[in-house]
Amino acid sequence: MKPGAGSLFPDVRPREVWGWAMYDFANSGYTTVVITAIFNAYFVGVIAGGAHWATFAWTAALSVSYLLIMLCGPLVGAYADAHAAKKRLLLGTTVGCVLGTALLALAGPGQLWLACVLIILSNFFFGLGENIVAAFLPEIAQGEAIGKVSAWGWALGYLGGIVSLGACLAYVTWAQGRGQSAGEFVPATMLITAALFAVASLPTFLFLRERAQPQPMAPGLYTRAFTRVADTLQHARRYADLRRFLSCIVLYQSGVSAVITLAAIYAEQVMRFTTQDTLLLILVVNVTASLGALAFGHLQDRIGHVPTIALTLLGWCAMVILAWQSTSAASFWVAANLAGLCLGASQSAGRAVVGYLSPARRRAEFFGLWGFAVKLASILGPITYGVVTWISGSDHRLAMLITGVFFVAGLAVLLSVDVARGRAAALAAEAK
Questions:
Q1: Per the domain annotation, does 8 fall within a domain?
Q2: Residue 109 — left, alpha, or beta (φ > 0 → left; ψ -120 to 50 → alpha)?
């Protein structure tokens, strides 16, 4: 995955791009194993005992963590810009997420509150780290190649998910062969995931450089941070297309977040998949997602940002219909892999567009707003799904169908975004 000529700024070496992309490789194990494949189903079926409110409890815990990220993300971005502290902050969030993941091994049957607290903390640190590492992207890739380099990161990220999930699947297969229950083998997968995250993130801290320079600001840390955030929101209002695209992200990412956080629960509760079936499915879907991120990243640079994202949203709509109608394992496999193809593409393209429409001096802040939008979506989508299952008596098919509304609404807003006009506004701001 060596960058092509003209993709990087003159002072950026390929190994630094690799170091940046390796963070996607490292942290993807958390989302794949904890949020998507293993711990979510374990939380619902074992920790919460399969209660009718269990799915809602899972989505509520995640919603609390995302709300905290929404409140802190822009402040952290403002602090990072003011003090040129992105790399230091990234180290702190990485340590927090790794420790939180490892401690999830202590959450067993009936320990609902412990599991909730640890999920909130680990996901909080994960989300802040995701915001911070994204802010490095426009510093290493030139404007027209941001989509391609972002796609390399997402593709390597899904490879990281595959490695973590593969290691866990191997352990689960070994443990079940010896008669162990989920209460015995799931805690070990949390330790495996935490260890892989810690080791795989090392290249990021070895090779990624902090290029930002501290900016003079008025005295008073908290006053400066809140003033900076207010200023960020004021500036964001001046960029109409960036504002519209952030609204689009909130809508379509609500659907994406619901699928990610509830995939294993849907597979086990509706399709009656076993733990091994679910792990194998998500392992293959990660391969599909990696290919989708690479393919659509190149397509994005060829046909444009809006057409690429529109194509993926149409794919998401088709996936929802397939999953809603699926009565056989084969048809659900088709739906899941279509989701994987669209997942890598829509997330990679979305991150790239935010960087493309942001003025250079405020990219960390605007990526904080991007994180704000994604985390707001991470509340709306899953909590909607959870509420529907709670009210309907665990009707997951109905909840899946309602999830499709987010993709349709996102597509409608996307059609109002003019990327060329938005890019011109960002360049004009840089010139000033």
A1: no
A2: beta
For 281, the domain range is 14-209+225-431
The SS3 of residue 212 is coil
Contacts of 268 (CB under 8 A, 6+ apart): 41, 45, 274, 275, 278
Most confident of 8-12, 210-214, 370-374: 370-374
Task: Find the CATH number of the domain harbouring 247.
Answer: 1.20.1250.20
Domain contains 80: yes
Alpha helices in 304-362 (DSSP H): 305-325, 329-356
Look at residue 29 and tell me whether its pLDDT is greater than 60.
yes
Q: Is residue 214, in this structure, part of any structural domain at all?
A: no
Q: 275-303 pLDDT, tens per residue?
A: 888 999 988 887 887 777 777 767 777 78
Buried b (16+ CB within 10 A) or exposed e, 32-53: bbbbbbbbbbbbbbbbbeeeee
pLDDT at position 413 over 50:
yes
295 backbone dihedrals φ, ψ, rounded to 5°: -65, -50
Neighbours of 71 (CB within 10 A): 11
The domain total for the chain is 1
Q: 173-208: per-residue pLDDT in tens?
A: 999 899 898 889 999 999 999 999 999 999 999 998
Could you say which DSSP state residue 105 is in? Answer: G
From CA 197, how far away is CA 253, in angstroms rounded? Answer: 24
**CA angle 357–236–220, rounded 5-degree value:** 120
Report the half-sphere exposure of 217 (CA within 13 A, side-chain side). Answer: 21
Question: What six digits make up the tokens of 291?
Answer: 């290919």
Owner of token pair 């070994």: 174
Distance CA 309, CA 410 (A): 10
Does residue 416 lie within any of the structural domains? yes
